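Try this one yourself first.
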């Protein structure tokens, strides 16, 4: 079974045993993860936004309902999220 990347349209294979909410990588989009959804027994996907920690460069996958202004934590610090040009960034809170 396959889905289409909502960003580039590339076909992405849904792994055996996949569950709604699992993440898969788009082989065509650098750094994009896709969050799997299942509706009426059909698979779809949405972009799962990611952001790098400004201190340690760990890549964090953001929850689906994330919005600009939310605060995330990494390395014992809080970072406020901004959203510009279709991507999130983390800044010291």
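Now uncover the answer:
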């Amino acid at each position: 079974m396959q889905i289409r990347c909502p960003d580039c349209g590339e076909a992405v294979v849904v792994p055996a045993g996949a569950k709604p909410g699992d993440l898969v990588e788009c082989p065509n989009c650098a750094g994009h993860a896709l969050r799997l959804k299942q509706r009426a027994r059909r698979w779809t996907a949405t972009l799962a936004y990611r952001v790098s920690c400004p201190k340690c460069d760990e890549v964090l996958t953001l929850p689906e309902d994330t919005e600009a202004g939310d605060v995330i934590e990494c390395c014992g610090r809080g970072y406020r999220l901004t959203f510009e040009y279709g991507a999130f960034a983390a800044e010291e809170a």
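Discussion: Residues 50-92 form one domain. The longest strand covers residues 77-84.
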